[in-house]
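Sanity check

After download, print the first record. It should look like this:
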Amino acid sequence: MTDTSIRTYTNENETETEDESTAVSSEQEHCPECGGRLISDDEHAETVCTDCGLVVEEDEIDRGPEWRAFDSAEKDEKSRVGAPTTNMMHDQGLSTNIGWQDKDAYGRSLSSRQRQKMQRLRTWNERFRTRDSKERNLKQALGEIDRMASALGLPENVRETASVIYRRALEEDLLPGRSIEGVATSSLYAAARQAGTPRSLDEISAVSRVEKMELTRTYRYIIRELGLEVKPADPEHYVPRFVSDLDLSDETERMARELLESARQEGVHSGKSPVGLAAAAVYAAALLTNEKVTQNEVSEVASISEVTIRNRYKELLEASDTAAPA
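Expected structure tokens:
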């Protein structure tokens, strides 16, 4: 038998195998008797046709847990799997951690020798978790992102996005010549703006370990090199936080949004700081709804000067008066 005939025979076998697998898959999708749709009956572990009632398969394997839970707390207590993977950890949460409690599985305290042994194991475990300088870099940066996000009260989705941005910057070799803290802070600032929960540069730099100038420069570089689409900050995104921090009413928040919308129609937003506009709108709305709040209180919450609030306050009221007749 020649090589050509062997290859031809093999190809014919592969074709037959593919045809058989296609036929099997089509049979599994449709009833072999009437061609109806098949559904899986988990209660009886059967696959049944919806049209004629034919039982196609029975005694199927249940791949779910063998226990039942009636609320989320009971489900978490009975679950024997680990936490889901996350980009907020350098190893995506797949490595093993040795607990800090010096107790055994029964809750009994360990002896002095066992405690020393566990401490050595923890030390080596931490060393093995970071295999090279790149992972050590990532571990430090993600810890910094988590620290700043906690200080700023940012939600978990912002931390996750910031971690992804930093990973991209690290993969594309954008860190040489820049500090880890600077790139981490820039990633968090960009993620917060993308998620619609922005923080001002002053707020970010207050919890960061880098200067405002370095933060601004690194942020522009990261945005440009990674091609991130970050829209200009909307003053309305700051309003709910300012209203909450000042303990003002929902009516004040609604009035502040109306003032900002009137200002947008009159073109007042152009070239103005969104934080200043939001702070001035909240201050003006509080006065219009007869709520007591001072410029100094708003200034402390928004981290801007009282002069800025007064200037934007006048512009917002003028824009509101102009837009009112229309």
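If your output differs, re-run the checksum step. Summary of this record's structure: DSSP finds 13 helices and three strands in the chain.
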